[in-house]
């Protein structure tokens, strides 16, 4: 699917081409803090699928030795998780409007999920990362 997204202030826009429609929720403690709740993430995107405007406003935070988190300097919107080793971006679904084709299929780090909510969709749930 091709998608257009933007941060809250609109200074950062994101165009994506040919994104796989699978959506994953990550319940890990870092995602909970960065996104203020579970991270509903699009499938991995490589740099050549992405067109940013306002890229100079994107602040990257090194949240671990293997990943960065991207946010808008202007409005604070949480934008993406970036995996350094594979150079893949995982964007937050909330930035995008036309997600009619998206399917929510996986939940990861369910061992860290707070007890007060559960999603109703039938998903594959992994205590940590999917075993491959
Ligand atoms: Zn913004
Ligand atoms: Zn996470």
From TrEMBL:
GO molecular function per UniProt: carbon-sulfur lyase activity; metal ion binding
Pfam families xref list: GFA (PF04828)
Domain (CENP-V/GFA): residue spans on this chain: 3-110
InterPro entries from the UniProt entry: CENP-V/GFA, Mss4-like_sf
Keyword list, A-Z: Lyase, Metal-binding, Zinc
Domain of life: Bacteria
Keyword Nucleotide-binding (UniProt): no
Record bears the keyword Cell inner membrane: no
Gene3D superfamilies given in the database record: glutathione-dependent formaldehyde- activating enzyme (gfa) (3.90.1590.10)
Family: Belongs to the Gfa family.
Name of this chain's protein: Glutathione-dependent formaldehyde-activating enzyme
Organism: Enterococcus gallinarum
């Amino acid at each position: 699917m091709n998608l257009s997204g933007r941060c809250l202030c609109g200074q950062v826009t994101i165009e994506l081409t040919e994104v796989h429609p699978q959506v994953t929720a990550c319940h890990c403690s870092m995602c909970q803090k960065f996104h203020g709740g579970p991270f509903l993430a699009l499938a991995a995107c490589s740099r050549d699928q992405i067109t940013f405007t306002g890229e100079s406003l994107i602040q990257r935070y090194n949240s671990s030795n293997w990943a960065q988190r991207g946010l808008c300097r202007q409005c604070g919107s949480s934008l993406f998780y970036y995996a350094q080793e594979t150079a893949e971006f995982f964007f937050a679904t909330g930035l995008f409007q036309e997600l009619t084709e998206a399917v929510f299929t996986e939940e990861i780090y369910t061992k860290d999920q707070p007890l007060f909510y559960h999603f109703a969709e039938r998903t594959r749930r992994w205590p940590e990362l999917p075993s491959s």
